[in-house]
Amino acid sequence: MADQTRAPTLDPHALARELSGFLLIDGDLRPALSGATFDVVNPATGETVATAAEGDAQDVAAAVAAASKAQRGWARLPARERGRLVAECGRRLTNHAEEIGRLLALETGKAIRTESRVEATLVSDTLAFYGGLASELKGETVPFNPSMLTFTQREPIGVVGAIIPWNVPLYLMALKIAPALVAGNAVVVKSAEEAPLAALRVIQVMNQVLPAGVLNILSGDGPGCGAPLVAHPGVGKVTFTGSVETGKIIARLAADKLIPVTLELGGKSPMIVMGDADLDRAIDGAVAGMRFTRQGQSCTAASRIFVHESLHDAFVARLKARVDAMTMGDPLDEATDIGTIVSPQQFDRVQRYIALGETVVGAVAHRCSALPVDERLTRGLFVQPVLFTGIPNDHALAREEIFGPVTCVIAFRDYEDALAMANDSDFGLAATIWTRDLRTAMDATQRLQAGFVQVNQNLVVQPGLSYGGVKQSGLGKEASFEAMLDHFTHKKTVIINMT
Ligand code: NAI
Ligand code: MG
Asked: Would you call 368 a catalytic residue per the annotation?
């Protein structure tokens, strides 16, 4: 069994083997009760690097029982003490950021320098942010009646189920578990099948600091392990990031229990480049916004780029040149900018969309960068980034979430047309506009239908800023202080009659 107190393990293969076959329940690494496991495959080579425990309803029951028991004592700690412990988890994790980044690169194919190490660091940052907010879990006094002391207090919900995806598993997990814990809840995480190891390592390190049972993690598949977690009567709140389809299944299960859910779902985020935009900045913004370093596997990916016709050709040529200059290769190599797609299923999905785009009359697929030539990587799930031109905004390629390195560049003449196309989507997660004109910028910030609108930049979700979509992109907000209050506590009203 992995020693919880020893120094970081920089060899990700060794760490993967060490963590093989375990869930973490009630402070202990343990196998699934059924004994079942599934393979964890390095998508850059196709080799199996570990097995993960395949949790099912019995393990869910054990984890929820441990969490329920631990939650009572956890909620009774002074709020600042909970915050101090969560922030201390963040400090511990900074010592493990390198090993965790490497492990994440190994299991997901996300490049170490551009993605995986950065993500491991964001976890500590998020825990520090929420740890400092604990004493702000305040209620109000209410002037209801002079002879009745009336106040509200924020109480934890109890046990929170957190179901996370594989694309940014650690950061998205931190954005759920940090506010849930600080607010006094216990948490049971269900990791994604494609990325169980780094998440387990994060939870294991946090369990060096937290009381046993407060934070547990299960691995396993969606229907076999995620669904029983949502359905368990001891779980009072579910927070989920993933596909729209699965989000709806979870919302239906939660409706049967009448419990709240937070859903962070997909996107088809528009980027509008006006004729007066600073082209250099817009190109940088497209590279960052499309998350090419993450193979486009982002819910906020700038996967529809509307470019004024006066800039269109120059934009495509320069964006292509920029992506051409990026190095695709071994995710664990420091020289690599772009790693692999996470799984064969996602690889096939992305290839299907690219093939579909190529059937559109008048469309051109501009393939960027070069596939790696390294012999060891011949079975790797590498996809050349594709810039499509000539795809109409109503085509499936411009409507459906591809979750790969594929973006549609669409020309426009008139601002109103660009805005109408940007909003003509089932999704509403993020949007950007690039212009030097303040009036256009302000108009767009008011009229773009998205939870997160940026002008002349394309940042990812940040601790402290409410984040979450409209339309099919989800329900509820994450990442901010008010998200902690609104989604991980309930407000109790108390009256003390003093007459
Ligand atoms: P998914 O939504 O099925 O999986 C996300 C998580 O939900 C995983 O932990 C999975 O085990 C769990 N899950 C699946 N079925 C469940 C169920 N019935 N009950 C409870 N939990 C369940 O996404 P998947 O299959 O990994 O990817 C498919 C597509 O979803 C991607 O191509 C992408 O378009 C989208 N996606 C969007 C993400 C986002 O950040 N918004 C993240 C991951 C996927
Ligand atoms: Mg799925």
From this structure: no
